[in-house]
């Protein structure tokens, strides 16, 4: 439990590195024969889950301050991997481990056990991979190798499975054509293609509908620096806009991360935003309502609801349907829990309307969802009295130092 007290936010933080980029780099390291040094690494639980997966294949890992050295060849194929609560870990590694000709079980814990995996089946079967799951859920089992050269992916639930396929397929001997229907979170596929290109592997695509993957490509790079995380930055940037001021360091302004869009949203609502080299400064101002489609940047949704609660008028956020299969059913949790602290919300199909609201005291059940906890903590800055969260540790999934950074810039907690 943690009590969030009314406070004033002022100061500067450096964001943790992106777990999305870190996990992709770890997956690539599994398929590379080289010693790879990742710099500015992320220490959150999701990243640790991916590190544990490649350790199971015999990869040697040395963590040295902010860097990680990944060395050694694949020494054995495990019978089972465990991805903890990370959706990316499950969905990305399933196609990757399908490259190996052994039956491998994929398991996880907590919320991931309620997130669907059945949509992998038709694609993997087209590729000649054996697949079984537990009525659409984990544990699942794959039996590779990938034998065939053509498949169709349904991208409507998540882009993460396509990310894994794209990382895996250049490792095959033959070329592959992947057709994709209804792809969501396209920006995350741009991130995947960018990191693959940085490691020397190129893939062509036609409008995200058809991907042409040449086989026999090798990941060849020895050092890689993980970018700062825009998803984590968004909480503190919003805090600056609704309280006093903030400086967030460690951000790549030219990043492919979809959540970089927070800058444009803050500018649109009227916050004072200054973008420098690797730093963004935000100061409070009169804020006006906004309309934003969060379908392709779903992780911004909870903190955008909090921002909207401080904007004059009615804000509209699209992309409710994309929140169904996250760590919680996020739209439902946002509605139920944020209403308790006075945020006025209507849901109409894929659209959420949020009205300027007076934040009052209340008890929030985070449903063990890091993004609900962090967004609620930002709302609590301007609450009348205080907000209590049932679980403070859930932030560790993406942002281990969240509460330290929160206190550092003046956030009061007990
Ligand atoms: O590829 C990634 O790193 C991610 C993709 C998104 O998921 P979906 O593709 O399921 O929307 C995002 O919500 C998730 O937090 C991270
Ligand atoms: C949904 C998230 O991550 P994942 O899908 O990788 O569990 C998230 O970080 O908000």
Overview of the molecule:
3-phosphoshikimate binds at residues 19-20, 24, 158-160, 185, 299, 326. Its EC number is 2.5.1.19. It catalyses: 3-phosphoshikimate + phosphoenolpyruvate = 5-O-(1-carboxyvinyl)-3-phosphoshikimate + phosphate. Catalyzes the transfer of the enolpyruvyl moiety of phosphoenolpyruvate (PEP) to the 5-hydroxyl of shikimate-3-phosphate (S3P) to produce enolpyruvyl shikimate-3-phosphate and inorganic phosphate. There is one protein chain. The protein has 414 residues and is of the alpha/beta class. It has 2 domains: 2-16 and 228-413, Enolpyruvate transferase domain (UDP-n-acetylglucosamine1-carboxyvinyl-transferase, Chain), CATH 3.65.10.10; 19-225, Enolpyruvate transferase domain (UDP-n-acetylglucosamine1-carboxyvinyl-transferase, Chain, Alpha-beta prism), CATH 3.65.10.10. The protein has 12 helices and 24 strands. The strands form 6 sheets. The chain has a 4-stranded mixed sheet with strand order 22-23-1-24. It has a 4-stranded mixed sheet with strand order 2-15-17-16, covered by helices on one side. It has a 4-stranded mixed sheet with strand order 4-5-3-14, with helices on one face. Helix 9 (301-308) links the parallel strand 18 (291-293) and strand 19. Helix 1 (19-31) crosses helix 6, helix 3 (87-97) packs parallel to helix 5 (160-168) and helix 7 (230-242) packs parallel to helix 11. The longest helix is centred in the N-terminal third of the chain and has 13 residues, at 19-31. The chain is globular and about 60 Å long. It starts with a strand and ends with a strand. The mean pLDDT is 97. Phosphoenolpyruvate binds next to helix 3.
